[in-house]
Amino acid sequence: MHAPAVAAALVLLSFAAAPPENARRFFPLEPRSAWTFEDTGSGGTSSMTVTRARAGRFQLERFPGARHLRVRWSGQTLQAWDTAQRRWEALLPLGAKAGTRSRVDLPPPLWNDARITVASRQTAVRSGRRSYRGTVRLDVRPPPGLSDGGILGLWFAPHVGLVRWVEQTIAGPVAHVLVSGPRM
Question: CB neighbours (10 Å) of residue 111?
Fold first, then answer.
């Protein structure tokens, strides 16, 4: 094989083997980060915060559907510690390609046997007064038997994190939109 052909083959191979887009940019976990969301139904607010537990591990407070989560990155997936089963479980497949499906197996009720689909990697979403492009949209099917509650969808914007989420309530779906957060 000639040198130019070898060089071209190596370039093509390097593109084919390129790692997926860095999922961490869609949920930048840094100690003391905080996000505030407005409930579009009632106008009330809620917040989510991050603290560092130890190197590479974070405590996520008030993530939708969970009060306290110990989380870490494993490759392109955010994992959460399952205290009942004493193991790390996949939570958010933020680096997976569109169409990927996964199952969350965290303690009941809202994340036990929930199903997640990476619905889009290029969604444009309006959240509060801002618009975000290139967001990752995760569709969530709540656990079986949970008809009047559960998370239905999560939107993550590059360098900002969670910008919108929708939950099922007894009164119907309610959206929560980001009103303040990191790098806004």
Answer: 25
